[in-house]
Hints:
Elements: E1 11-12, H1 15-26, E2 34-38, H2 44-50, E3 55-60, H3 63-72, E4 78-82, H4 90-94, E5 99-104, H5 110-118, E6 126-132, H6 133-139, H7 148-154, E7 157-165, E8 170-171, E9 178-185, H8 193-202, H9 210-214, H10 221-230, H11 244-254
Parallel strand pairs: 2-3, 2-5, 3-4, 5-6
Antiparallel strand pairs: 1-8, 6-9, 7-9
Helix pairs in contact: 1-2, 8-11
Amino acid sequence: MKNNKSLGQHWLKNRAILDEIANLARDGADAETVCLEIGPGLGTLTSSLLKRFSKVIAVEFDERLATNLPKSFPNTNLEVIHDDILQVKLSVTVKTDNYVVVGNIPYYITSPIIRHLLNATPSPRRIVLLIQKEVAERIAAEPGSHTFLSVSVQNRAEVELGPVVKAAEFTPPPKVDSQVIILTPLQEKILSPEAVKLAKRGFSSPRKKLIHNLTGYGNTREAWQEILFKNGISPNARAQDLELIDWEELARAMK
């Protein structure tokens, strides 16, 4: 079936890679764990998931694919839902708190999908996504390379990088390589809402020094210089240099 370029469809058919992704999704799951697949497409990953989970719920936005997918897997515990994953209320769809999410997702809606999954109640036990390699690396960044995206995601989940998948493995091949990212949602957020707001302000102009971005946000430049000094943060630091907990300490110092 021809891909729909507007939906960012690229088919991955390498069985070894598909099995590896399915194994990562299955890791730590039990016999009752439900698998929610985002964008099953032609069902190549679905095939691997059905061998590892007692039930797979596949959410497909493309009506053609959603209609054809059940025909490829007769007599299996596969439920196909024709819908936009961003409009799906996960608790209603999976009907259990024992579920994982897996998918080869379109690059252009990676961040909205991750936000949607991490905001779900109850949250998935595990999230395994194949996304653009550069974005995966940004999400998994460490101090010195942080972005507001990495801070936002790491505030909500443990992040682990999985295998890299070369563009040539897809049909048609995208312009960039992909990488698997594994998210394990945390029971409690690391940062308070105030700390997240502060981090967003700190990253407002990422190339500028942190003191420049924070000046005027609740304190004068001189006050922020003193706060940074007391928290062991260089006045020349940029937002990318801070650890997550630093934002919480700065938010407390603001008060």
